[in-house]
Amino acid sequence: MILTFTPNPAWDVTYEVDRLVAGTTHRVHTVYARAGGKGINVSRILAKRGIPTMAVFPVGRAVGRLLTDDLSAAAIDHDPVEIGGATRMTVTIVERSQADRPPLEAGRCSPLRDDVTNVFAEPGPALTTDEWSALIDRVDRHLARTSVLVCSGSFPPDVDKSGQTRSAPARLVEMSKASGHLVLLDTSGPGLLAAAEAGASVLKPNAQELREVVGLDDLCSGAQALCSAGAGAVVVSAGEDGLIAVTAAGEAWCARPPFRVDGNPTGAGDAVVAALAYGLSTGASWPEQLTLAVAWSAAAVAAPVAGEVDPDVLATVAGQVSIVPI
User: Counting C-beta atoms within 10 Å of the first and last residue's C-beta, which end of the chain has fewer, N or C?
Assistant: First the structure.
């Protein structure tokens, strides 16, 4: 089983509009609302592909109940921890000209625009020390039947006043490793470096997150820096340029999709994490993992909301991913 931990989940609302124009009223054509947060999105992708998964996360008040009801309706196994604060919301606005993409022609999609989405993310509730401890205990409870632990997304503000926001990822890594399990983290900021120093099996930052932590523009060099700090491997998502993967053993690859895919890219990184977690759980080679990750990521961009993959795009991309050693 793949266990996902989402420290700061959200009720995700996605609006599709013709065009976003500041200072005007917009007619919303389509509304999607569902349980979200990076780890939950990972569990949703895995569950829809028949891969056993369990999602652990905090929930609070009325919005929190929306998350648990939605996951129950979707038959996604979950074990939430009740907290006193209210679960946050996120709103994503997608311009309909991009959401209504044309069908694939000759193995290509229309270009992806940089301004295709606008995301408004609330910070989320602060957790008490007792609430955070309950979450860690809940994760620990499921580790015995877990092959890979995925910790994905931002951490709530003020996890504790001693600065545990930095140490929390490291604690999760150490706990998982002590139980003999692989751990994959997709987070940002100081927690990313702390997880590397604790010996995370795999880290999955995007290009901006990596540069902010290591201070290097070159993605391969930045990934090598995190491996030198202690990570087993680092996979960097670089948008339409695909993935850069570096291992502590000195291996490195660039994995690219055959073409750019238009749509909503907010769930692309979660699809990469889902694919990597599955690959780790099955013992797949790195080229096999990266091929799957690029294909799932491209198919996630073509889906209207995070946590989904478009089957037509997946079938088209899967056999055309380019894997080049660096």
Answer: C
SS (H, E, C) 8-19: CCEEEEEEEECC
The CATH homologous superfamily of the domain defined by 2-325: Ribokinase (3.40.1190.20)
* CB-based contact 297:314 (threshold 8 Å): no
User: Minimal CA–CA distance to 47: which of 108, 103, 2, 8?
Assistant: 2
Closest CA to 156 of 122, 179, 125: 125
Distance of alpha carbon 134 from the chain centroid: 23
* 198 and 232 Cβ atoms separated by less than 8 Å: no
Spatial separation of the C-alpha atoms in residues 98 and 7, rounded to whole Å: 31
269's tokens: 């990184």
Distance CA 118, CA 266 (A): 9
Cα–Cα distances (Å) from 212 to 39, 189, 222, 238, in that order, read 22, 7, 10, 14
Beta bridge partners of 316: none
- By the 8 A CB rule, do 168 and 176 touch? no
Specify the pLDDT at position 162: 47
Rounded mean pLDDT of 288-308? 96
Contacts of 159 (CB under 8 A, 6+ apart): 7, 126, 127, 132, 165, 168
Q: Is 199 left (phi over 0), alpha (psi -120 to 50) or beta?
A: left
Strands (DSSP E) contained in the chain are 2-5, 10-17, 30-36, 53-56, 58-59, 81-82, 88-95, 117-121, 148-152, 182-186, 202-203, 233-237, 243-247, 252-256, 322-325
pLDDT in tens, 56-113: 999 999 999 999 999 999 999 999 999 999 999 999 998 875 444 444 343 333 333 4
Joined tokens for residue 165: 């926001």
Across 171-199, average pLDDT: 94
* pLDDT at res. 110: 36
